[in-house]
């Protein structure tokens, strides 16, 4: 696990897991969280990103 308080980001890694191998949370803005899941699928790098925003 690595934390970057200035960038407001946390990164979790588990290379023994099939999916995701890397899980990153980033607070982009006070109302915007970005979650990035990274792994390999069929031998190719694969990234899935979710942008979550607080509802008004």
Q: Any idea what the shape is?
A: flat
Supply Rg: 13 Å
Structural class: mainly beta
Binned strand content: over 45%
Strand order of the largest sheet: 1-2-3-4-5
Explain what you see.
- By secondary structure, this protein is mostly beta strands.
- The chain has one domain.
- It has no helices and five strands.
- A five-stranded antiparallel sheet has the order 1-2-3-4-5, with no helix packed on it.
- Strand 2 and strand 3 (22-29) form a beta hairpin.
Structural key phrases:
single chain, 56 residues, mainly beta, five-stranded antiparallel β-sheet, 5 strands, 0% helix
Tell me the layout of helices and strands.
Blueprint: E1 2-4, E2 9-13, E3 22-29, E4 32-41, E5 44-53
Antiparallel strand pairs: 1-2, 2-3, 3-4, 4-5
Short description:
Helices cover 0% and strands 64% of the residues. With 56 residues, the chain is mainly beta. A 5-stranded antiparallel sheet has the order 1-2-3-4-5, with no helix packed on it.
